[in-house]
Amino acid sequence: MYWTMGIILMVLWVMGLITGSTEGQWVHLLLVFSIIAFVLAVASLGRRRGLA
Q1: How far apart, in whole angstroms, are the C-alpha atoms of residue 49 and residue 31?
Q2: Is the Cβ–Cβ distance between 10 and 31 less than 8 Å?
Q3: Distance (Å, rounded) from C-alpha 9 to C-alpha 49?
Q4: Nearest Cα to 42, choosing from 8, 6, 16, 17?
Q5: Which of 25, 52, 28, 30 is nearest to 41 (CA)?
């Protein structure tokens, strides 16, 4: 679930950069949220495998 959310947020971030309508750089919050989603995905993967 976190992987999918991270990918969607990353795509939205890239689309925001391409369109150029960043409106005060708020679009970069999508990048931060996608990185957090990827970190959560890696953490949950480690928990399921017993690594963490």
Answers
A1: 27
A2: yes
A3: 26
A4: 6
A5: 52
How confident is the model over 38-50, as pLDDT tens digits? Answer: 888 888 887 666 5
CA–CA dist 52, 36 (Å, integer): 17
Q: Which amino acid is at 28?
A: H
pLDDT category at 22 given cuts 50, 70, 90 is: low
CA dihedral 36, 27, 20, 25 (to 10 degrees): -120
Identity (one letter) of the amino acid at 50?
G
Name 35's Cβ contacts closer than 8 Å, sequence gap at least 6. Answer: 6
Confidence of residue 15 (pLDDT cuts 50, 70, 90): confident
